[in-house]
């Protein structure tokens, strides 16, 4: 077995990395994304009168729930006991941006949990507002920063 974590075993077969010997440390990751939409859809969400109700609250809960279930969605991800997940939204001129933060104390990072939270929050925004605009554009999903673990801290340029 190699000392470098990899999702491939000696024969090249995919497997879950053994993190049992890694130290449990505080780990945190922040991911973001955005959704662009028609002015009418954005105005309805901002006013709180979208056809499906409170769009932002629903998207926030969906993002948090998704982070907690990342290991069920992404193959070979470790199930983690998250200590916190936050999903925040900012208004933009042509849409909404999302920022998801996930944290744990454990032997592996939470980058995938933060990215999953941001992605599902965006998908939920789309679902909640698609009656107003089916041409919404989701994108710019990325890791902004991570801290903790053997590889240390990282921040997007």
TrEMBL record:
Enzyme category, top tier: lyase
Enzyme Commission code(s) on record: 4.6.1.17
Pathway: Cofactor biosynthesis; molybdopterin biosynthesis
Positions of the catalytic residues: 127
Stored InterPro entries: MoaC, MoaC_bact/euk, MoaC_sf, MoCo_biosynth_MoaA/MoaC, Mopterin_CF_biosynth-C_dom
Keyword Lyase appears in the UniProt entry: yes
Keyword entries, A-Z: Lyase, Molybdenum cofactor biosynthesis
Record domain Molybdopterin cofactor biosynthesis C (MoaC): where: 16-149
MF annotations from Gene Ontology: cyclic pyranopterin monophosphate synthase activity
Matching Gene3D superfamilies: Molybdopterin cofactor biosynthesis C (MoaC) domain (3.30.70.640)
SUPFAM superfamilies hit by this protein: Molybdenum cofactor biosynthesis protein C, MoaC
Amino acids binding substrate: 76-78, 112-113
Catalysis performed (reactions): (8S)-3',8-cyclo-7,8-dihydroguanosine 5'-triphosphate = cyclic pyranopterin phosphate + diphosphate
Oxidoreductase recorded as keyword: no
Gene Ontology biological process terms in this record: Mo-molybdopterin cofactor biosynthetic process
Family listed: Belongs to the MoaC family.
Function: Catalyzes the conversion of (8S)-3',8-cyclo-7,8-dihydroguanosine 5'-triphosphate to cyclic pyranopterin monophosphate (cPMP).
Known partners and oligomeric status: Homohexamer; trimer of dimers.
Name listed for the protein in its UniProt record: Cyclic pyranopterin monophosphate synthase
Organism encoding this protein: Sphingopyxis terrae subsp. ummariensis
Gene: moaC
